[in-house]
């Protein structure tokens, strides 16, 4: 075959490609019309019976040279593309997505805000252990100018023999201290049935890493009238993390903060592996504020400051860190909690770095 013949055949292929493109586009437009009609009638977009009929009909009509399986495969791809086109905006763009909302969500509690430029420091003990311990932290935070105190009352411990937290009594202690010092409080809730009562005592519900995919808890948090701090699961992908947040937002509670707290990898020199790349990815993909927990991610006091700086440099809206009046005697996470003095120094250095912008 000479060059001329080859060129002529290629010209025919180009021509057919153009016709196919035009027909595919036309098919897409009709498919969108069908989607509208289905929406009006409340019918589902995917109709497997209709799809089976179309594939069978095409296979029966096929005269080659492509075999039946190839024809089925090619048309299946076309059907799939049309279905994607038909899927509702809701399914394509999550409520938590930047594509759905371009501007940053600002989460506010008792006049304290995060998101849209203002940075937030969240500090406090791993666990609420007593009124005296919690009050000592509250007083130190107040003196340091920190407005949000964390403290676990329901502790998701690996061993059932370890301190499980003070439960509702712990939440009551948080409230007493918060009222005295004018602080906003965050505490983990592990049981959907506790969401309602928790709102009487705390200002922000934390959903812990181990519960990131506790869907009933997420749904209950979505019904809450106070903000939610959602921790990334121990081995959660970005998709899973964002879909977990979507559970809350889709139930009506848009006041959600995401927090990267390290993921489990083979590395043993840190408690978990701080996935700093999660910060710019989440900021790009979602309008929700993104925080970084430098305590549970690193588990090492000696690198918390540079990790906090890295988090802010990567675009994080806030930092969470654990601090305790006497870490050596702490009932949980004794090794990673800063003394109140160490916290003061940490916070002062972070502010001095110029990376932390106070609200
Ligand atoms: C916590 O912040 O108290 C906690 C238990 O963290 P995580 O859920 O990230 O392990
Ligand atoms: Mn802890």
Automatic annotation (TrEMBL):
One of its GO terms (molecular function) is aldehyde-lyase activity. Residues 1-90 form the Chorismate mutase domain. It holds the Pfam family DAHP_synth_1. The keyword Transferase applies. GO terms for biological process: aromatic amino acid family biosynthetic process; chorismate metabolic process. It comes from the Bacteria. Keywords: Transferase. InterPro entries: Aldolase_TIM, Chorismate_mutase_GmP-bac, Class-I_DAHP_synthase, CM_dom_sf, CM_II_prokaryot, DAHP1/KDSA, DAHP_syn_2. PANTHER family: PHOSPHO-2-DEHYDRO-3-DEOXYHEPTONATE ALDOLASE (PTHR43018), PROTEIN AROA(G) (PTHR43018:SF1). This is Chorismate mutase.
């Amino acid at each position: 075959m000479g060059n001329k013949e080859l060129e002529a055949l290629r010209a025919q292929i180009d021509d057919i490609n153009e016709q196919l493109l035009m027909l595919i586009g036309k098919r897409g437009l009709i498919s969108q019309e069908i989607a509208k009609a289905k929406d009006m009638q409340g019918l589902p977009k995917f109709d497997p019976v209709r799809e089976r009929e179309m594939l069978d009909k095409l296979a029966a009509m096929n005269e080659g040279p492509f075999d039946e399986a190839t024809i089925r495969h090619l048309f299946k791809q076309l059907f799939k593309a049309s279905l994607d086109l038909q899927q509702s905006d809701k399914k394509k763009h999550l409520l938590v997505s930047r594509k759905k909302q371009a501007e940053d969500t600002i989460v506010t509690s008792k006049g304290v805000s995060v998101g849209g430029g203002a940075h937030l420091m969240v500090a406090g003990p791993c666990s609420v252990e007593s009124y005296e311990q919690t009050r000592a932290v509250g007083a130190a935070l107040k003196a340091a100018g920190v407005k949000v105190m964390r403290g676990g009352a329901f502790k998701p411990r690996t061993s059932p023999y370890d301190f499980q937290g003070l439960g509702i009594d712990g939440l009551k202690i948080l409230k007493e201290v918060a009222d005295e010092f004018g602080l906003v409080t965050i505490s983990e809730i592990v049981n959907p049935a506790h969401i309602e009562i928790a709102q009487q005592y705390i200002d922000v519900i934390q959903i812990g890493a181990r519960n990131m995919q506790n869907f009933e808890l997420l749904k209950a948090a979505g019904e809450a009238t106070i903000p939610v701090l959602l921790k990334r699961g121990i081995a959660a992908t970005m998709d899973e993390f964002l879909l977990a947040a979507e559970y809350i937002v889709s139930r009506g509670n848009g006041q959600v903060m995401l927090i990267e707290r390290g993921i489990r990898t083979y590395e043993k020199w840190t408690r978990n592996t701080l996935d700093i790349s999660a910060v710019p990815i989440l900021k790009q993909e979602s309008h929700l504020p993104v925080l970084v927990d430098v305590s549970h991610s690193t588990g090492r006091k000696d690198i918390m400051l540079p990790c906090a700086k890295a988090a802010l440099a990567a675009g994080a809206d806030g930092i969470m860190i654990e601090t305790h009046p006497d870490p050596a005697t702490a009932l949980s996470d004794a090794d990673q909690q800063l003394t109140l003095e160490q916290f003061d120094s940490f916070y002062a250095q972070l502010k001095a770095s110029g990376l932390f912008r106070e609200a």
